[in-house]
Amino acid sequence: MSSDSIPPATTPTGGDHPADESVSFADLGLREELLAALAALGYEEPTPIQRAAIPSMLAGRDLLGQAATGTGKTAAFALPLLHRLPATRSGGNPLALVLTPTRELAVQVSEALHRYGKGIGVRVLPIYGGQPIGRQLRALELGVDVVVATPGRALDHISRGTLDLGELVTVVLDEADEMLDMGFAEEIEAILEHTPQTRQTVLFSATMPSRIDRMARQHLSDPARIEIGREAATSDTAPLVRQSAYIVARAHKPAALSRVLDVESPTATIVFCRSREEVDRLTETMNGRGYRAEALHGGMSQEQRDRVMGRLRAGTADLLVATDVAARGLDIEQLTHVVNYDVPSAPESYVHRVGRVGRAGRQGVAITLAEPREHRMLKTIERVTNRRISIERIPTVADLRTRRMELTQAALRESLLTDDLDSMRTIVETLADEFDVMEVALAAVKLAHETVTGPAEDEEEIPQVALRPARETAEGRGGAGAQGRRGERGRARSADMTPIFIGVGRRVGVRPQDLVGAITGETRLSGREIGAIEIADRFSLVEVPRAAADEVISVLRQCTIKGRRTTVRRDRDN
Ligand code: AMP
Questions:
Q1: Is the pLDDT of residue 221 over 50?
Q2: N or C: which end of the chain has fewer CB within 10 A?
Q3: pTM of the full structure
Q4: Is 144 within a domain?
Q5: Which pLDDT value is given to residue 16?
Q6: Residue of 43, 281, 376 to mutate, ligand 1, most atoms within 8 A of C-beta
Q7: Domain range spanning residue 415?
C-alpha cells in the first residue's frame, strides 16, 4: 500500500479562499496512476469537497461529509479509496465496500471507480438486487478489490457466506440519508457488524438530520467533518444579473442550450463545463449546430488562448466554452450571458462564474442547465448566495418561432426608422403594378425573416422534466418515521408516488413521451398524474401514483415500448 507524500488534512472548505484554488490533484498527494486517469478525463482541478476530503481520507481518518450530487463527492471518496489499494493483488476478499441506496447509483459509482482506477487495475463489482446472482457469485469467487452494493443484496450475500468483509479497509456509506429514508437502517447496521473494527468509515449525506448524526456518532470515530455550501460566498452576485435555471435530462442538453441561446439571442456567452473533455465535445457540437463556438481550457498555450479571446472581442466568435480554471480572471466586456452547462460543484464556483457578467453596472444573464438529480445543489446555491434562481420551462418550438418573428419585426422597425429606403422604391413600385402592396411587403418580410433568423429548420421539442415541489424539506423531516420518501437522486417524492423501473432507456431511443404515451394509452392515468421521468442509458424510471402502480406494471408488461417487450417492476431494491 503506498501512502507517500500525504499532505496534512485541510480544514473543511466552504469559504472563498483564493489560495485553495491553486491546489492541484498532485498537491493532494494522489498516486501517479490516478493523476494520469484524471488528466485523461480532463479534470483540471479538485472540487472543494475533493480538496477537503481527499487529504483526510488518505491519512486514514473517518469522514462525515455533507454534500449533494454534483459536488464531485464520488471522486472525493473514490480517489483516496483507490489510492490506498495495494499495488498488486490477486484473488482475495474486498478491501473496500461502498453502500448506495439504489442500483442506479451503485452502477454509477462502480463506473466512476473503474474510470479512475484503470491504471491501478482495480477490480470493482457492483452488486444489487434484480441482477442475476450467479454472475455476482462468480466474480466474488475470482476476487474483487471494491464492492459497490445496495444494502439488501449485500446482506443477502453476507448471509449466504459469499461476501466476506473481514479484510475491509474502508467502508463508504454514500447518500446515507437516502438509505435511511428507504428503510435500510437495519441492513446497514447488520452489514457494519460484519466489518473489522479497524476499518475507515466514510459517510456522505446530502442532509444531516438527527438520525444521520446518531449513525455517525455510533459508527464513525473522530471523523473529519466537511460541509459544502454552509458559509456564505463572499462576493455577492451582482444584482443586475437575471438568474434562471432549466431542468433538463443530460441527453437533451445540447438541444436545450441551443434553444435557450436562440431565444435569448445574447451578444456573447461563456458556457462553463466541468472538464476539458466536455469543453472540446460541446464546442464541436455547438459548431455543428451553427454557432461560432471557441474552446478555452487549461491545456491550451497562452498563444492559443489569446487567439480565442481575440476572436471573441472581434465578434467573430460568440460562444466561449470554458473550464473554471481557464476562465479565472477573464474580463470580457462583450459578455452578456453566463451558462452553467452543469450545476457548479460548489456555490463559490457559481458566484465566480456568474461574476463574469453584470460587471460595472452592466446587465447580465446567468443560466444553469441542471439535471433533475442536481436540483438540490441549485437550492444550496440559492441559499448561500441569498438570491433566487427561477426555474423556467425550456422554450418550446412555438416560443422559438414567436421569438424569431419578434426579432424580424424589430429589425424591420429599425430599418424603417433609420435607413434610407428610397433606393428600394423602384422595386416596390414596379412590383406594385403586378401585385398588391401588402403582398409585396409580405414577400419582402419573408426574405428578411430568413436573413435575420436563418432558414426555418425542423425543430424538435425538448422534453420538459417535471419537478415535483418538495412537500417538506429534508432537514425538517428529521426523525424516524419520516412521511415522504425521497427519490433516489435527491429529489423530493411525495409519499403517494412510487417509481417504476422499465428496462429500456436511451440506448433504444426511449423518450419521456414514449413512456407517458404507453402509460396513458393503456391505463386510466392521465399524463398529469405521472410524476418525474428519468431516462438512463439502459433503463428508465417513471413515478406513478402508488395506488395505480400494479395496474401500470401489469399493463406495461403486456405492451411494447419502442417495439420491444421489457422488464417492468417496482424500483425497490430486493
Ligand atoms: P458527483 O457529485 O460525484 O455526482 O459528480 C458530479 C460530476 O462531476 C460527475 O460527472 C464527475 O465526473 C464530475 N467531476 C467530479 N470531479 C470533477 C473534477 N474535479 N473536475 C471535473 N469534473 C468532475
A1: yes
A2: N
A3: 0.67
A4: yes
A5: 37
A6: 43
A7: 404-453
